[in-house]
TrEMBL record:
This is Peroxisomal trans-2-enoyl-CoA reductase. It comes from Linnemannia schmuckeri. It is found in: Peroxisome. PANTHER family: PEROXISOMAL TRANS-2-ENOYL-COA REDUCTASE. Interacts with PEX5, probably required to target it into peroxisomes. Its main location: other. Its EC number is 1.3.1.38. One of its GO terms (cellular component) is peroxisome. Participates in chain elongation of fatty acids. Catalyzes the reduction of trans-2-enoyl-CoAs of varying chain lengths from 6:1 to 16:1, having maximum activity with 10:1 CoA. Has no 2,4-dienoyl-CoA reductase activity.
Length: 324
């Protein structure tokens, strides 16, 4: 099956003999992160509530020659977080990396959001991330070191339509900075964030059609002129977990085509650039195996499971992607 594995830009064997936990690793960005880490030699443990999705991803990784284990987890339960970390360390003797990717939210204006809805998303995203970080520290990293990457969302200019997740993700960013300072002296623990902008991902299936239309209408309103790919998030996570980031801790890395620095196509404001909706000048990075129909090269993966308009957009991106 040579040549069929995930096409990472990083050196093969980079994470040999390392054990890395990815929460929410059964679908979307988490699945892509798990694939890339496994392609680089890591034993990847993916954890989430839905075992069927986890098993599907683990099967894909194993068919491509990687190592992947699955475990159930509700990140809102601190005892489950502790038990998960203890199980991994007992079985494998270590936990070198943690990627806090699991989470969720729903679209709603703040004026129509209930207190319960707000609290639920904050509990899931902010508290769930804290539970995993604390469990990893107490169960292994406090004594042996390690690296943590928290997946948030680009929210430096607020998060209209999702005030609950904006508040939670901002809290995670601040928590990450605090943990980087407090835990750095404990055998060099590094804690960082990756903040995706608009990404073509299976997570898009969770939003109503009207919201998706808004995403598509504005997908080019940034200097990159496009949305991002799951691979572009995964590679950022891999970098922060790698020795190349040995002197990087406490940062929030936006992966958003600079959308957070721009205001889109402001025709009435000559101080702002007018972005071109006709197409991006920045080729995407897609790490999924490039296979042609009819070739006997091993398993063919379904790279993306998103609403049809976004699948069409992804096909265009793929035709312009960097060839690896």
């Amino acid at each position: 099956m040579a040549g069929t594995g995930y096409h990472s830009v990083f050196e093969k064997g980079l994470f040999n003999d390392q054990v890395i936990l990815v929460t929410g690793g059964g679908t979307g960005i988490g699945r892509c992160i798990a694939h890339e880490l496994a392609s680089l030699g890591a034993l990847v443990v993916i954890a989430a509530r839905k075992m069927d999705q986890l098993e599907n991803t683990a099967k894909e990784i194993r068919l491509l020659g990687g190592r992947c284990e699955t475990m159930t987890l509700n990140i809102r339960e601190p005892v489950q977080a502790q038990d998960l970390i203890n199980t991994i360390v007992t079985k494998h003797g270590k936990l070198n990396g943690l990627v806090n990717n699991a989470g969720g939210q729903f679209h709603s204006p703040a004026s129509k959001m209930s207190p319960k809805g707000f609290a639920t998303v904050v509990d899931l995203n902010l508290m769930g991330t804290f539970y995993l970080c604390k469990a990893a520290f107490e169960g292994y990293m406090g004594e042996h070191g390690g690296s943590i990457v928290n997946i948030v969302a680009e929210c430096r200019n607020g998060f209209p339509g999702m005030v609950h997740t904006g508040a939670a993700r901002s809290g995670i960013i601040n928590m990450t900075k605090t943990l980087a300072v407090e835990w750095g002296p404990y055998n060099g623990i590094r804690v960082n964030c990756v903040a995706p902008g608009m990404i073509l991902s299976s997570g898009m299936k969770n939003y109503p059609e009207k919201v998706l239309d808004g995403f598509l209408d504005n997908s080019w309103l940034n200097p990159a002129g496009r949305m991002g790919t799951e691979s572009e998030i995964a590679s950022s996570v891999v970098f922060l977990l790698s020795p190349a980031a040995s002197y990087i801790t406490g940062i929030n890395l936006p992966v958003d085509g600079a959308s957070s620095l721009s205001k889109g196509d402001a025709k009435a404001n000559t101080a702002q650039p007018s972005f071109n909706p006709a197409g991006s000048k920045m080729p995407p990075y897609i790490g999924w195996p490039q296979q042609e129909q009819g070739q006997d090269q091993g398993p063919v993966l379904k790279e993306l499971d998103a609403p049809e308009p976004m699948m069409q957009l992804y096909a265009k991106y793929k035709s312009k992607a960097h060839k690896l």
